[in-house]
């Protein structure tokens, strides 16, 4: 009986993920801004300076950019795309319609999360492949910490994406508001230019999840002598942001359009 | 719990079904802050009946329908849909499996095809209709493989109606289903609603179009300021069937108003209007006179108060105009 219920629920979520994926890959903007952008950035940055070394890390730049843009891709898929899409769905009445159908809310949110996970994994794999075969980057030594970092990153930024969608008032504001938050967070992360350890900006950046996720995804490559592949402290900060996002999302989430 | 409550089987005979109330609303109340959006609203909708809530914007129609849908909590009164309380979380999922909604907004995922959207939503329900059959029914066979974003407004609405019935609902809510339509699109939509609901679905319709209520509903309740101000069949609403008739015509050229055989109640824009409770007598005198004089009575009509006249009177339009 329990198993039958579980199987029925898994099937329901699975179907929903399937249709979410159809929607995502057919939307040229969604697919381009997430997968396309992270790939283009990686290739551009790697091609313009890929043979140099990040001064204070003493690793090839490409080794920094692969996990960096993988983290960017996760954030883009989970935070940016999801927040904008949720605002649009809420304001157009799509969320209300789902609320009035027998699809439970947990199944809808669960499907969004899993769908973002699928997109994130595809992205990380593509970036690793391009880094490996296009720019002779090394693959991670230890895969388990990378998988965990992806999982924690997806959970955190999905929660933050849902939370952000509850704060944006309407679909006109969705693009600009989400993009500004997104780029400020990126700027602080040290993705575009690695931050000097110990600098004031780096210390400030440590309070935010993006730089932390990049480091958590960098660690499994084990490029620094004696470093652990598990960046527990960084994962911890990402998880705390995820918890904050979840709290805000659960408290503020609404199915009905704001404007009515 | 009535036979129509937890039991999923529908009653066997039409006669039996007609006796069962699908929706009961008794003393419903809803407040938004200081504003009483709905106050003391009561009505019953029998199983298989098409019932219209008529009223201007802000009358409380949508709030009422949203409470019935379980989307909004009520502040007072009793509500039952198919024997269940829509506010009861324990049974709300079961109730949603047996109801369908068509909202004011046209909201469907743009990048899925018509067939995909209907197949996906069919999967939400335990006993759905066949998506292919629904596509046929709403006349979208040609567009079944088209993405939703390529549909025209009218086609979107038809898809919307299709989504409303994909779960084979026992109760269907239509919230202003033709707002913003041109007249021919509205007629098509009415025809479609009639076809979709001929199988005995109970329908609650909200609209601010009188002709829509008249065309689709067997009973109408007029809401204004959160209250029901009149209820009845479209033919009898507001004492319409008992009221005076209005005879209208354009007096022939060269005939003074004073020379007409019956004196008009009023003359506006060259049209004489006679308000009378003896329409047959007035028409006989008037037409005999015209034949004898050899003149034409251009634009001659005789009608009871239109539903629109009654409606405007009920929602206090005349009051506001003064």
Structural description of this entry:
The complex is a heterodimer of chains A (260) and B (322). Chain A has 260 residues and is mainly α. Chain A has one domain. Chain A contains 10 helices and 2 strands. Chain A has a two-stranded antiparallel sheet with strand order 1-2. Chain A starts with a helix and ends in an 8-residue tail after the last helix. Chain B contains 11 helices and 13 strands. Chain B has 2 domains: 222 residues, Rossmann fold (3-Layer(aba) Sandwich), CATH 3.40.50; 61 residues. At the A-B interface, α1 and α4 of A face α4 of B.
DSSP strand count of chain A: 2
Which percent bin holds the helix content of chain B? Answer: 25-40%
Coarse structural class of chain A: mainly alpha
Q: Report the principal-axis shape of chain A.
A: globular
Largest interface: A-B, 23 and 27 residues
Strand content of chain A: under 5%
Multimeric organization: heterodimer
Largest sheet of chain B: 6 strands, mixed
Number of helices of chain B: 11
Order of helices and strands of chain A: HHEEHHHHHHHH
Q: Which regions of chain A have little confidence, pLDDT < 50, spanning 5+ residues?
A: none
Q: What's the pLDDT, averaged over the residues of chain B?
A: 86
**CATH topology label of the largest domain in chain B:** Rossmann fold
Pairing-aware structural class of the strands and helices of chain B?
Answer: alpha/beta
Write down the secondary-structure element order of chain B: HEEEHEHEHHHEHEHEEEEEHEHH
Query: Quick one: overall form of chain B?
Result: globular
The overall strand count of chain B is 13
Rg of chain B is 24 Å
How many angstroms separate the termini of chain B? Answer: 51 Å
Strand order across the largest sheet of chain B: 5-6-7-3-8-9
